Model the fold of this input.
Amino acid sequence: MDPTAASASIVTTTIFPVLDMAAASAFYRGLGFTIEAFDEHYAFVRHGDREILHLQQAAVLDPVSNGSGVYLHVDDADAWHARWTANDVALSDIADEPWGMREFSFTDPSGNLIRVGHNL
Done:
């Protein structure tokens, strides 16, 4: 198959830098994801049978200036927001945005930005 054809499948996976693999793994487990360690420096974050993120140990990382981020498109952002709010995750308010998304955001312990939303 021609890789430039419109029907060609492309899947991307974000790789987040993390300062502390154990803390990052615990954080994502607390969100309800499954963590599959490749080794002590690399892990896969899974939701059901899908791999959604990779975590890679960083030698140096300033969480305040970390510019890494990902957008998780979900079917019902309100349900995800309610679930994580009940688990005491520090989330932004959920809102309808002018770009046509209902979304919220939060950061992990290494400063990686996670935005979650669905199309309006």
